[in-house]
Amino acid sequence: MDLEITSTEAARRFGDLLAEIRYGGGVAVITKNGEPVAELRPHGKEKSMCLQDFVTFWNEEHASLTRGNFADDLQKVKAADLPAENPWE
Predict the structure, then answer these.
(1) pTM of the full predicted structure?
(2) CA separation, residue 74 to residues 43, 80, 81, 88 (Å)
């Protein structure tokens, strides 16, 4: 992603702009009064992974979801979710 953006627009959507640069790569040139002022680019080496690495990462990070504990946790939450007492009774 190579992008030219005004300083006003960059300020308005700074978080989105950072995400675009982080995950999309490329450079954002920030302009003021039509003149380039700064460049925003990813820091350091860009990280990438193949699908198999992602699956391994996902399984390690979300092991409790893949072991079935998540369904048990949902049942506990559902059982503990009682309606509020009626203060007018």
Answers:
(1) 0.47
(2) 40, 10, 10, 31
